[in-house]
Design goal:
ten-stranded mixed sheet, 427 residues, globular, Alkaline Phosphatase, subunit A, alpha/beta, 15 helices
Length: 427
């Protein structure tokens, strides 16, 4: 296990003065990222029977964003968007295992919160979220698996132990990452054995091997078990943290969704994410609960990168670039007709070629518009015809994505490449 520990930073004179004049105390902030959780597999979003009773309970007391999207259906880039407020293409991090550039280090939420007097800790379950892969500074404690994977329950134990060990004299910022739903599906033993991979394509599409392993239904059932396992870990963490912390702000979000078998017949693509910008891969559950949050549901479009502004505002730091960079505080409902964008990740080789290749997508909460490599609209979803301005914006985002991909991709280290391959990525 990788464990990075830095000395705690004193609140200093500013903190003393705040306490003396009776200012509203800043809340502790808990961010839980549920890796690879499809929105339609959450009870609060209509899944029946629900595999997520813990997240559903949190949703009943918080604000549910019904139309939230990732910035890229890939673990590393999506998390960097959350922690910096920027799109992956702006960061130059358009694939897994590409860490945050030192030029963007000051954008790190943990860095800013640590400077503001927060105790900061990260407890993650995959090497894709480890310090070397993210490059995120500012965490006083950053625990990651020494091997390929770590059970979510182990990360919960570590996070609660850290909270209980006296790190709550000042507000805390905790990031808990749960990989249980991510492929390879199933429990930890099943994950370690892996699942069939056809590297001539992209994704887990070796159909003969899948059938030999129990069929498509067995894989879908194992995915659902992983979702339930992550939800149980989430519930245990939130309950335990609330016993230690006074009214923390709790944010639960997926980094991206997952393709199951929807496109296997037409694309030869199943049980994965990243190549396409379909609804099931880019739609994410996003729930905010705690101080200054009114329970309810928001139907406007929201982005995972909005959580950057949400956290800075909740911590009393503020985000002076929010308006210029088009972010919102998700403790409030997102307005109707707001547009968010989603980018396609970069690949070292284009493994699924053709006109259906997706470049970018935009959504206004009602319509989802996807643009392909020929700059044509791909199966837009939503009521009625696509608004012309939305189609134009989607084309512009696709052009920007193409330009970002035209740049030289960062060279992955042999260690990073090996970790990706063990996780089933053919990058």
């Amino acid at each position: 296990m990788t464990r990075i520990v830095k000395p705690l930073v004193s609140l200093g004179l500013a903190g003393v003065l705040l306490g003396a004049i009776g200012c509203q105390p800043r809340p502790s902030i808990l961010v839980v990222t549920l890796d690879t959780l499809r929105r339609d597999h959450v009870g609060a979003y209509g899944a029946m029977p629900s595999p997520t009773p813990q997240l559903d309970a949190l949703a009943r007391e918080g604000l549910v964003h019904e139309r939230a999207y990732t910035t890229m259906p890939t673990t590393g880039p999506a998390h960097l968007s959350l922690f910096t407020g920027r799109y992956p293409s702006q960061l130059g991090a358009t694939q897994n295992a590409v860490p945050l550039s030192p030029r963007d280090a000051d954008r790190s939420l943990a860095e800013q919160l640590a400077r503001a007097g927060y105790s900061t800790g990260a407890f993650v379950t995959s090497p894709l979220a480890a310090p070397g892969a993210t490059g995120l500074p500012g965490f006083g404690v950053y625990e990651a698996p020494a091997g390929v994977l770590r059970a979510g329950d182990d990360a919960v134990d570590a996070a609660l132990s850290w909270l209980a060990s006296g790190n709550t004299a000042r507000p805390v910022f905790v990031w808990l990452h749960l990989y249980d739903a991510h492929a390879p599906y199933g429990d930890m033993d099943q994950k370690r054995r892996g699942i069939p991979l056809d590297e001539s394509l992209y994704g887990y599409v070796d159909v003969a091997s899948i059938e030999a392993a129990g069929g498509l239904g067995a894989f879908e059932a194992n995915y659902a078990r992983g979702v339930a396992k992550a939800d149980a870990a989430l519930g245990r963490f939130v309950a335990g943290a609330r016993e230690i912390l006074a009214e923390p702000l709790v944010i639960v979000v997926a980094d991206h969704g997952e393709s199951l078998v929807e496109h296997l017949a037409t694309r030869g693509y199943a049980f994965d994410h990243g190549e396409y910008l379909d609804e099931e891969a880019i739609s994410i559950p996003l729930v905010v609960a705690g101080p200054d949050v009114s329970p309810g549901r928001s139907g406007g479009a929201a982005s995972i990168r909005d959580l950057y502004t949400t956290i800075l505002e909740a911590a009393g730091i503020g985000d002076p670039t929010a308006i210029a960079e088009e972010r919102r505080d998700l403790r409030r409902k997102s307005e109707a007709r707001r547009v968010v964008a989603i980018e396609r990740r970069s690949f070292e080789r284009n493994t699924i070629a053709g006109e259906e290749e997706h470049l970018a997508a935009v959504s206004d909460g009602k319509h989802l518009v996807v643009v392909d490599s020929a700059f044509e609209l791909v199966a837009p979803s939503g009521p009625g015809t696509v608004p012309p301005d939305l189609a134009r914006l989607a084309a512009l985002r696709a052009q920007a994505t193409r330009e970002a991909h035209a740049k030289a991709l960062p060279v992955l280290s042999p260690e990073a490449r090996d970790a990706l391959r063990q996780l089933g990525y053919a990058e």
